[in-house]
Amino acid sequence: MLTRSRKLFIYPIKSLGPVEVTTAEVTNEGLRFDRQYILVKQPVDPSAGIVQHVTIKNNWSLGLFRTSIDKSWSQLTITHIQADDNAVISIPLTPSPLSLFRAATFRVSIFGTQAPGIDMGERIASYFSRHLNFPARLLYIGGNGQREIPGAVFKAPTESVSFSVNDKLLPQRIRFADASPLLITSTASEEDARRRLPPAARGGDVILRFRSNIHVDVGDEQGPYEEDGWGMLAIRSQLNSDLEVSVRCLFKAVRCLSLNADLVNGGMCATPEQLYGLLMRDRRVNEKLPHKPVFGQYACAGPSGAVLRVGDEVVVTSRVHKSPTPLLTPAPNG
């Protein structure tokens, strides 16, 4: 069955708005630049160990920040859409190692696996602290630029798990994403979610609330939530059909209260517009986490260095009858 990629999103700062792009590079940690920054609360004691990261799941005002990348792919600009002044700040999309050499480093834990985060300095911290109304710091992923996949999300008995796209490619890791390198969604499911909303609330870009990386246009060929049964996908370049990216679907993505974020006003949506509750009615279909609604598929892709483009062909090459399950191999310690 032939479909096409309709939208590609990267989220340079976890929990802030996405940058919609026309091309994206695949890495072993997801799309290039995705979730490489994270906001954390200013630690009272810098030597205390793990810092608390800030997430839109319970900090709705994060929805008021918009992100954009300049044409040279060197600067990331953040804009607070309701600020009267000091609304915009620009930071390096890729900080130079020299600029980070003497910066403070903190440990960040997300679902039980950790990564170091390098502090981006007082100017940036002041910007976010002012608009969030509490002391905050922006961190860039340190160490080797990756973190182990948290096994807790996949109900594994260990702290982390390891899986690959196939037996020819390297194991996958993540940066500051919650649980997997990628999230894949479909247009049919988007439209079903839209129809659940009150008519007056259907005009917005609903898919932004689901924080997708690869949004697939399935046209009329597939119905809502058929991606629940996707196993493997092949994404074929429109420039050269011999160039192919393999995508392995891992787990029907269980969703959290971030679905209820009002991205226009920076609060929680009114009850009739809360997608979390609307999906709870009939979308609790992940057998391992049956108390949460499902929308989309956690996934990984390879080979690293391949480029995805909006409009590339997407072919479902295998399907599963039950929820896709990652290769629950404990990741090596260290």
The chain-level mean pLDDT equals 92
Number of structural units classed as domains: 1
Strand order of the largest sheet: 1-16-15-21-18-17-23
Order of helices and strands: EEEEEEEEEHEEHEEEEHEEEEEHEEEE
Largest sheet, in brief, is:
7 strands, mixed, barrel
Structural class: mainly beta
Tally of extended strands?
24
Which residues sit in consecutive blocks of at least 5 with pLDDT less than 50? 325-330
InterPro entries: MoCF_Sase_C, MOCOS_middle
Protein name: MOSC domain-containing protein
Organism: Neohortaea acidophila
Domain MOSC: 147-317
Structure description:
The chain is mainly β. The protein has one domain (2-330). Helix content is 9%, strand content 35%. It contains 4 helices and 24 strands. The strands form 6 sheets. The protein has a 7-stranded mixed barrel with strand order 1-16-15-21-18-17-23. The protein has a 5-stranded mixed beta sheet with strand order 5-12-11-10-6. Helix 3 (187-196) links the parallel strand 15 and strand 16 (214-217). It is globular and about 50 Å long. Mean pLDDT is 92; it is low at 325-330.
Short description:
By secondary structure, the protein is mainly beta. The protein has helices at 97-100, 122-132, 187-196, 275-280; strands at residues 2-10, 19-21, 23-27, 30-31, 37-41, 50-51, 65-69, 75-80, 88-92, 105-110, 113-119, 136-141, 149-150, 160-162, 182-186, 214-217, 230-236, 244-254, 261-262, 267-268, 294-302, 307-309, 313-319, 329-330. A 7-stranded mixed β-barrel has the order 1-16-15-21-18-17-23. Strands 5-12-11-10-6 form a 5-stranded mixed sheet. Strands 4-3-22 form a 3-stranded antiparallel sheet, with no helix packed on it.
